């Protein structure tokens, strides 16, 4: 077990191991930076609109509290208690080898996610430059064709390289002067941009129709499927199940309250998702666009709407800047998971690890970048298990590996590690509730999400 002990090279990042780690405020901002990502900006608003608006919003809050919060707190607690990466921390706390291997799953998951997340993050940067330069201001342009042409070409490779370079650079600078600083500047800036765009969106003629689509409660649209969608999203949105919050947690000060931190992180995540919806739907509806989902919403419907808006190049540019920030602060947290591991396992320097892993993540992302469905990308016709490479990476990580990673965390904290309550600073009823959720409720719900995702569970409501 050499290389996983406290004397490893990477140990210099942690408080109590010769490093400074995160400041209290810095940790909250970095964790919010991780959780607020592309998921908040396009997925959450859309699934809310589709599943009964405010009714779904309430359901999502319940899922965040029942499943998201306990696992978030568990991950951070394991990181701080184990004082190491997402694999060695589990070993350090139990001295049992098999936990090290379970932990390794989340490190592989993070690396796989990083490869295609970098591609999408790259798209946002391209669209930001295009918007600011006025190239997206033509109302007669076919925005769907423009997006498919771009995503099917080789340009995304360039942008994904830019994303990996920025991410690698931030990580190479270290936890406190790299990751913390990056988030401290970008996250408050992000909120200001978001508020500017919200005021602009809500003052557009016809904006209320969009706000209504997003928020009008319609309980009749809620069904079993909405519950699982809300559950799955609470997981993804808080960056759980792939070692991210665990790794960040290992850089937290001993006297920081993890309970309060998890409330702040979940609250921040919810707030950003809510305001994002108040930007996106009023804008899309005011200009008569379809509120389609995912890629179509962000890269086709919104650019078409911004093109019709006075000063649309500016507001569109700011919107994509917002997306790029959301994506980059999440990307940093994702790549830090394998970086912390490789540094400690193989005793590499942080700089060397960051350069090597960012380069590998770029290479691994190349097949994804060239295989986006519906484009003429060179690999877009290659289907594996009926999916393009891009979709396969997305599906296998979000729906299979992340739930498995989450299950490992709940079982570890609920059954294997006996002193979690002490490290988390929880006692009495709160501790018992936390354990009850981790032992029984969360594992059961995660298994349900999993069965639903892989198609074993089908409610036939579609
Ligand atoms: N939470 C991010 C989002 O909402 C995505 C993410 C997942 C980030 C896993 C880090 C780890 O987009």
Automatic annotation (TrEMBL):
Q: Does the keyword Membrane apply?
A: yes
Q: Where is it predominantly found?
A: membrane
Query: Which UniProt keywords are listed?
Result: Membrane, Symport, Transmembrane, Transmembrane helix, Transport
Quick one: signal sequence residues?
Answer: none
Q: Does the keyword Transferase apply?
A: no
Its subcellular locations are: Membrane
Top-level lineage group: Bacteria
Q: Which Pfam families match?
A: SNF
Entry membrane topology: Multi-pass membrane protein
Q: Which residues cross the membrane?
A: 26-42, 54-74, 101-123, 143-172, 184-207, 227-249, 270-289, 309-342, 354-372, 392-417, 437-457
Supply the InterPro entries for this chain.
Na/ntran_symport, SNS_sf, YocR/YhdH-like
Q: What family does the database annotate?
A: Belongs to the sodium:neurotransmitter symporter (SNF) (TC 2.A.22) family.
Name under which the protein is recorded: Transporter
């Amino acid at each position: 077990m050499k290389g996983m002990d406290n004397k490893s090279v990477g140990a210099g990042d942690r408080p109590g191991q010769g490093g400074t780690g995160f400041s209290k405020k810095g940790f909250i901002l970095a964790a919010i930076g991780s959780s607020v990502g592309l998921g908040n900006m396009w997925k959450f608003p859309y699934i809310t609109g589709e599943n009964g608006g405010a009714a779904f919003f309430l359901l999502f809050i319940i899922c965040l509290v029942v499943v998201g919060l306990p696992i978030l707190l568990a991950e951070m607690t394991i990181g701080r208690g184990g004082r190491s990466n997402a694999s060695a921390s589990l070993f350090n706390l139990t001295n049992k080898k098999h936990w090290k291997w379970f932990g390794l799953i989340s490190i592989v998951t993070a690396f796989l996610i990083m490869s295609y997340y970098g591609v999408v993050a790259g798209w946002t940067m391209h669209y930001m430059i295009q918007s600011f330069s006025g190239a997206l201001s033509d109302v007669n342009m076919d925005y769907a064709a423009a997006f498919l042409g771009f995503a099917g070409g080789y340009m995304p490779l360039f942008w994904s390289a830019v994303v990996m370079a920025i991410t690698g650079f931030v990580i190479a600078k270290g936890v406190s002067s790299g990751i913390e600083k990056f988030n401290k500047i970008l996250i408050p800036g992000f909120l200001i941009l978001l508020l500017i765009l919200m005021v602009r969106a809500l003052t557009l003629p016809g904006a209320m129709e969009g706000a209504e689509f997003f928020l009008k409660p319609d309980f009749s649209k809620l069904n079993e499927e909405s519950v699982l969608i809300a559950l799955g999203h609470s997981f993804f949105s808080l960056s759980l199940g792939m070692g991210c919050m665990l790794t960040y947690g290992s850089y937290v000060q001993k006297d920081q309250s993890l309970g309060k931190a998890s409330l702040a992180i979940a609250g921040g995540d919810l707030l950003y998702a809510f305001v994002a919806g108040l930007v996106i739907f009023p804008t899309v509806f005011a200009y008569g666009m379809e509120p389609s989902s995912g890629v179509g919403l962000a890269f086709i419907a919104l650019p078409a709407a911004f093109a019709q808006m006075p000063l649309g190049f500016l507001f569109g540019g700011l919107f994509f800047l917002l997306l790029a920030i959301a994506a980059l602060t999440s990307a940093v947290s994702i790549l830090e998971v394998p970086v912390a591991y490789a540094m400690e396992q193989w005793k590499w320097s942080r700089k060397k690890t960051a350069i090597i892993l960012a380069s590998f993540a770029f290479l691994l992302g190349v097949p994804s970048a060239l295989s986006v469905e519906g484009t003429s990308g060179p690999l877009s016709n290659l289907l594996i298990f009926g999916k393009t490479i891009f979709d396969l990476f997305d599906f296998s990580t979000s729906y299979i590996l992340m739930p498995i990673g989450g299950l490992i965390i709940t079982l570890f904290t609920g059954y294997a590690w006996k002193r979690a309550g002490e490290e988390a600073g929880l006692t009495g009823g709160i501790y018992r509730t936390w354990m009850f959720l981790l032992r029984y409720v969360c594992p059961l719900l995660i298994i349900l999400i999993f069965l639903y995702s892989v198609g074993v569970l089908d409610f036939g409501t579609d």
